Amino acid sequence: MERARRRVREAERHLGGGRRRVEETTYYRRHRVSRDAPVEWRGVSLRVQGDALAEVVYEKSEEGIAKISINRPEKRNAFTPRTIVELICCLEDAKEDGKVAAIIVTGVGTSAFCSGGDQLVREVGGYVGKDGVPRLNFLDLQVVLRRIPKPIVAMVAGHAVGGGHIIHMLCDLTISADNAIYGQTGPKVGSFDAGWGCSVMARLVGPKRAKEMWFLCKLYTAEEAYEMGLVNKVVPLDELEKETVYWCRQMLANSPLALSILKASMNAVDDGHAGVQQLGGFATKMFYSHEQGLEGLTAFKEKRKPDFEQFRK
Ligand SMILES: CC(C)(COP(=O)(O)OP(=O)(O)OC[C@H]1O[C@@H](n2cnc3c(N)ncnc32)[C@H](O)[C@@H]1OP(=O)(O)O)[C@@H](O)C(=O)NCCC(=O)NCCSC(=O)c1cc(O)c2ccccc2c1O
User: Fold this and answer.
1) Is pLDDT of 27 > 70?
2) Parallel/antiparallel/unpaired status of strands 47-48 and 51-52
3) DSSP letter for each residue of the chain
4) Which InterPro entries does its entry note (predicted)?
5) Do the beta carbons of residue 18 and residue 12 sit within 8 Å?
């Protein structure tokens, strides 16, 4: 009993609740989360289909945040099939980079986060790139956003409309500038997203509001979006990046595996078998470190029968 009490007191001290001054603990020093520490973005060179990134800017910070920005501000950051390939490529890099623990998705400039698919490259059957094939590869991006086992934060300034609105909804968190405008435009321009674009929205704002957004193509201010539960926080435009990085820093201080499993868990019900598959994958990963998982492997390597009987308790 006394040992348990001591452990609770120790934990409280680490979490800042004890009598000792929290600044004195090495735990707190290691995990200090600062809003004001400067962030140094350094560009990352990636190549896509033989060329360097052309429609996306990719940066990382020393502390473990990756920032991916759609770079077509003259088109309100509308995406082409190439933009999508570049976004996927950067997201995959951020996923595989063991130093990265949080990802920011945003748009260059302050006029738009993203205005959805570039309507000028839309033809019969989809959006057309250099190869002349009409595609809806935006759907591939959606899967990647949903599956990456790291938290993704949408940093939104200006318009987040059409497919751009769906990108922010599929990110795990959204930090919004006060100049942001949210909404769906598809039914106006002859398009719709009847997949996660509907189901995730209905989860976020409720079915009635979701139908209002889609059926009327209304646009909403940042404050209205906050009231509806579409975004996590609204800040003045000039504080947007600082606030977003601060949210990322708070996540960097927490267990990455816990966040990965929480993300998978929150998506699992909606994603059906694919959701269970991802969640189950985490169980398998942890089982690989478990004595029973290791006994099976060791027995195979030692060419003997596994002894699972020892674990019957
Ligand atoms: C976003 C706006 C509300 C901004 O209005 P604003 O007045 O601030 O700016 P302008 O309208 O003057 O725009 C400046 C400049 O950018 C061009 N532009 C803006 N958006 C796009 C775009 N989406 N495609 C192409 N070009 C765009 C605009 O033409 C101007 O160019 P100039 O040369 O004239 O200077 C407003 O711009 C707006 O409403 N934009 C359109 C929003 C839209 O309808 N997006 C498409 C929705 S459908 C979609 O995104 C989509 C894509 C997919 O891949 C899907 C795949 C599978 C299922 C569904 C999908 C889907 O729905």
Assistant:
1) no
2) antiparallel
3) -HHHHHHHHHHHHHHT-SSS-GGG-HHHHHT---SSS---EEE---EETTEE-SSEEEEEETTSEEEEEE--GGGTT-B-HHHHHHHHHHHHHHHH-TT--EEEEEESSSSEEE--B-GGGEETTEEE-TT--EE-THHHHHHHHHH-SS-EEEEE-SEEETHHHHHHHHSSEEEEETT-EEE--HHHHT----SHHHHHHHHHH-HHHHHHHHHH--EEEHHHHHHHTS-SEEE-GGGHHHHHHHHHHHHHTS-HHHHHHHHHHHHHHHHHHHHHHHHHHHHHHHHTTSHHHHHHHHHHHTTS----GGG--
4) ClpP/crotonase-like_dom_sf, DHNA-CoA_synthase_MenB, Enoyl-CoA_hyd/isom_CS, Enoyl-CoA_hydra/iso, Enoyl-CoA_hydra_C
5) yes
CA-based R_g, the chain, Å: 23
Q: Looking at residues 125-141, what average pLDDT do you find? A: 97
Nearest CA to ligand 1 atom 25: 118
83 close to ligand 1 (CB < 6 Angstrom) = no
- Please tell me the distance between residue 144's alpha carbon and the centre of ligand 1 in angstroms: 23
Distance 112 CA to ligand 1 centre (A): 10
- Dihedral angle sign, alpha carbons of residues 83, 85, 87, 89: negative
Q: How far apart are CA 27 and CA 23, in angstroms?
A: 9
pLDDT tens across 193-219, in order? Answer: 999 999 999 999 999 999 999 999 999
Domains of the chain: 1-32 (no CATH), 41-254 (3.90.226.10), 257-307 (1.10.12)
> Could you read off the pLDDT of 266-290 as tens digits, one per residue?
999 999 999 999 999 999 999 999 9
